[in-house]
């Protein structure tokens, strides 16, 4: 029997409820004290990386949250240009709030043309820079930017320097596995998705509504 079980053993429901309420009261007071010190408002640089599934999915969750709060959002997809995704179909219903640009020609192993990939990456980056610097959008999603950075299709130093100088209140979200250390260093929030299991390894193909 654990110490916690010994303490609560034999207590009535009313006593347990009262003990729980007192514990939660102390926790709330401690939480409120911490929250009172958090006064900075700023646009965040957010990075979703890692080998696990869900990087873009989580980023689009932020997009939908922003839309629900009346914000305007821009999306630049670096390597998923040919994909007809469920997210894109939903976002088409918000033409006044969403600017969506699919610049990629597919994944690099599909095009098998390095110069074409580099040209597409550079075009997408120029579009991304314009969207980040404008006064119209509050959040910009750079979907799979980490992929083109991984293959050195863009200069990481130039990308980092630009993102460090983004408008103070602009949120920028970057997705893709193998995020470079330089990008992680300047980010405000970094989440690494870890793969525990994936159905693809068991022969299951990409499923509608799950992968796209």
From TrEMBL:
MF terms in GO: ATP binding; corrinoid adenosyltransferase activity
E.C. number(s) listed in UniProt: 2.5.1.17
Boundaries of every Cob(I)alamin adenosyltransferase N-terminal domain copy: 11-34
Pathway linked to the protein: Cofactor biosynthesis; adenosylcobalamin biosynthesis; adenosylcobalamin from cob(II)yrinate a,c-diamide: step 2/7
Family to which this protein belongs: Belongs to the Cob(I)alamin adenosyltransferase family.
Free-text function comment from the UniProt entry: Required for both de novo synthesis of the corrin ring for the assimilation of exogenous corrinoids. Participates in the adenosylation of a variety of incomplete and complete corrinoids.
Name listed for the protein in its UniProt record: Corrinoid adenosyltransferase
Natural source organism: Aurantimonas marianensis
Gene: cobO
